[in-house]
Amino acid sequence: RSWSKAKPNGKKPAAEEKKVYLEPEHTKSRITDFAFKELVVLPREIDLNEWLASNTTTFFHHINLQYSTISEFCTGETCQTMAVSRVCSAPQQADAPEALACTEPVTPSLPLGREFPSSFESLVKKICKYLFHVLGHIYWAHFKETLALELHGHLNTLYVHFILFAREFNLLDPKETAVLDDLTEVLCSSPSGGGGGGDGASSGAPGAQNHVKER
């Protein structure tokens, strides 16, 4: 892949040599086996935009909380040499704190209970892109700290819920998330990955398109 580049000395980054977060003993860790694939589906009595606004705001707060557990390890000094552009579409978006900083001013403006602007869907997609960058950065650069804090079960559960929600409503560009396709496949296709079986969890987009169009 184009983002997979060696360091100037010709050696691959350590994180690329061995992705600790993909080890079976870690990917099996969850805080719940709830069927997230069913949880993300739009309830009939709720407006689509209200559902997107409510869930996106919740994801922001949960991901912000997850990031805060390792924030002391994530500074300009410690992460400046990390090749996190593998997780981000541009260098200026590579830093997890910057992604959160870009997202935070936007999130409170989600118009819960008010009329939604025509640009609302694009706003939600922008926020989800930043949130994916933050999750990716945690896995790529700070999974060992997360493991030491015994919070990897929380991270895995949050990741599965977020990815299945984003797929249900086509909120993330597959090109943006391709960098973590290996992790997504493992987490979302496992028996506890979404409650809908491997094929359903890893191919949520087509059903989501039909679901949204019907509304």
From TrEMBL:
<dbReference type="Pfam" id="PF03637">
    <property type="entry name" value="Mob1_phocein"/>
</dbReference>
<keyword id="KW-0862">Zinc</keyword>
<dbReference type="InterPro" id="IPR005301">
    <property type="entry name" value="MOB_kinase_act_fam"/>
</dbReference>
<feature type="binding site">
    <location>
        <position position="74"/>
    </location>
    <ligand>
        <name>Zn(2+)</name>
    </ligand>
</feature>
<dbReference type="InterPro" id="IPR036703">
    <property type="entry name" value="MOB_kinase_act_sf"/>
</dbReference>
<protein>
    <submittedName>
        <fullName>MOB kinase activator 2</fullName>
    </submittedName>
</protein>
<keyword id="KW-0479">Metal-binding</keyword>
<feature type="compositionally biased region" description="Gly residues">
    <location>
        <begin position="192"/>
        <end position="201"/>
    </location>
</feature>
<feature type="region of interest" description="Disordered">
    <location>
        <begin position="1"/>
        <end position="21"/>
    </location>
</feature>
<feature type="binding site">
    <location>
        <position position="142"/>
    </location>
    <ligand>
        <name>Zn(2+)</name>
    </ligand>
</feature>
<feature type="region of interest" description="Disordered">
    <location>
        <begin position="191"/>
        <end position="215"/>
    </location>
</feature>
<feature type="binding site">
    <location>
        <position position="79"/>
    </location>
    <ligand>
        <name>Zn(2+)</name>
    </ligand>
</feature>
<feature type="binding site">
    <location>
        <position position="137"/>
    </location>
    <ligand>
        <name>Zn(2+)</name>
    </ligand>
</feature>
